[in-house]
Amino acid sequence: MKKFLPYKFLYSALLIAGMISFTSCSDDENNDVDQGYDIPSTYNFDNVSFSGQTIRLDQVGKLTAEMKKGNEVGVEVSEQTLTDIYNEDVSGKKIQNKVQESFDIVINSYFPKLEAASMATEAGSEGVAGVVTSHNGEKSYLFDAEGIEYTQLIEKGLMGALMYHQATAVYFGDSKMNVDNETVEEGKGTEMQHHWDEALGYFSAKTENGVTVFDDSRYWAKYAKKTEVLKTSENIYNAFIKGRAAIGAKDYSTRDEQISIIRRNWEIVVAGTAVHYLNGAKDEISNGLDVDYALKNHQLSEAYAFILGLQFNPESRVSAGDANKIAALLGNDFYKTEAKDVQNAIDEITSLVDELKDVAAQL
């Protein structure tokens, strides 16, 4: 098994290249296709359920809230507490058993590093772990001695290795799509319909007046707003609607087309969000001697995690090797990362996810 690039603070345990095989849903014989089925304008179907995904997203929120306690000087964050939340069973659901296998190992290695940083009793600075506060006093973040914010590596890492991976690689894969589509279970629909709904749940969704909509207050539905110039959220939502309708009509060719649309647009969201934070870090660096390291390092940590998250989509144009190569451009000490390093990372991302080339500066 290949290894990640040798950063002592980053995803150095395992390279996930080759761990995610390309999965495409084979077309069943479409002899029973309802050629005249309707496609609604909203996700308004019978028996929609994604409660398990909501529970797991809530658990990630609980884990993040615990980690963020370390953003106050003198507040120690316990490795054991983080591990307990990560493995906590809530109604038969937990974070740990849905995380991509290699990243599960990596994330467990981050908990003690976050705890160690939180034990600092003085403010952080270059070469010194601790809490660093922004120039205006409004933001404080816990960094290690190299400016790495483990809270971001863990939370945003889970957005990739849990949510993005489960939806695009697992629930859209053969094992979840080539299943029963005849027997209807009250409240869940057919097995195939339920799996489709669960994939949507990992994007972050909620039900309002009987209609399922994106919950744009958190996770991918929230971050998709950063790439709205490309209508990614709209494209993903409409593809989920059309795919669910196609499943009801046993139109599996159309279902598979929508899977590819969702995978492509979700990839744009991940890449675009990385570029957004790289732009922010570059802006901070441009301040010269007055660099706000709290904001710079925070945004680099977010960008780094999103960059590596790109590899979890089986149709991604960014391989695990590509993702690690791009991340390497940021260096292994964010206090020392320069504007040219950040721009090189932006250029590499937009060369692979080319929809971003003309809009990168707007993100």
Automatic annotation (TrEMBL):
Signal sequence annotation: 1-26
| Keywords for the protein's UniProt record, in alphabetical order | Signal
Q: Could you tell me which PROSITE patterns the record lists for this protein?
A: PROKAR_LIPOPROTEIN (PS51257)
Q: What is this protein called?
A: DUF4856 domain-containing protein
A Pfam family in this protein? DUF4856
- Family annotation (InterPro entries): DUF4856
> Native species of this protein?
Aureibacter tunicatorum
